[in-house]
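agent> fetching stored inputs for the S-adenosylmethionine docking request
agent> found them:
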Amino acid sequence: MKNDAINKGYKSISNIYDDYILSEKLLFKIIAKIIWGFTDKEYSIKLLENIADDFSGKILDIPAGTGILTYEKYLRMKNAKIICMDYSKDMLDIAKERFENNNTNNIECRQGDVGDIPFENETFDTVLSMNGFHAFPDKEKAFYEINRVLKNNGLFIGCFYIKGKVKRTDWFIKNFFVKDGTFTPPFYTENEITEKLNAEYKETKIWNKGSIICFICKK
Ligand SMILES: C[S@@+](CC[C@H](N)C(=O)[O-])C[C@H]1O[C@@H](n2cnc3c(N)ncnc32)[C@H](O)[C@@H]1O
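agent> prediction call returned; pasting tokens
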């Protein structure tokens, strides 16, 4: 895949991404509250709780972004082999620096496309995909590829923006984030994504926080 809009979009925000996603500083807190209606990161903490700190399998984190939501967890996971993959070099460079500064040799950062994951079938015990599907240009291909590289009984854990839950959020996505290249339509509705996950995975747990759908699925 060659997608300049995504590369450009994430290049331009990579230096403020961590502040934006954490929403701890006052300005970013206000922005997050207006756009999303909440500022806490409880949804990502709850998802990561489904991976044990002493987990000793292989994990693919795609898209890993800057690693801001995951690095504290990953630093505790000394027995796991973790592949952090992202399309944007600018985002991934920040993750790389973050992990290298912490002497982690079980974590590897690799540039790559979710639509063409460079691993064999059934390689990973867990695939984590937080806040990625609303950015991926070919979402069906991304679902296919993630399922392909996941082992049977493996877990697919993730979250992303869905349309039709909060009107104000939908308006900001359409008028700002699609234009700057950080979100790529078409977006799923809650019903569409629930049906899809239930059809493709044998066990699912699905819930939402505002416009964010969260899920844990067993293949
Ligand atoms: C909103 S960030 C999420 C990063 C991280 N998971 C988080 O929650 O902070 C979305 C990421 O998706 C990446 N991305 C977009 N299209 C991609 C693709 N086709 N393959 C891999 N990563 C992609 C972008 O480069 C960006 O870093």
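agent> quick read of the result: The pocket of S-adenosylmethionine is lined by residues 1, 6, 10, 21, 62-65, 68-69, 86-88, 91, 113-115, 130-132, 135-136 (CB under 6 Å).
agent> awaiting further instructions
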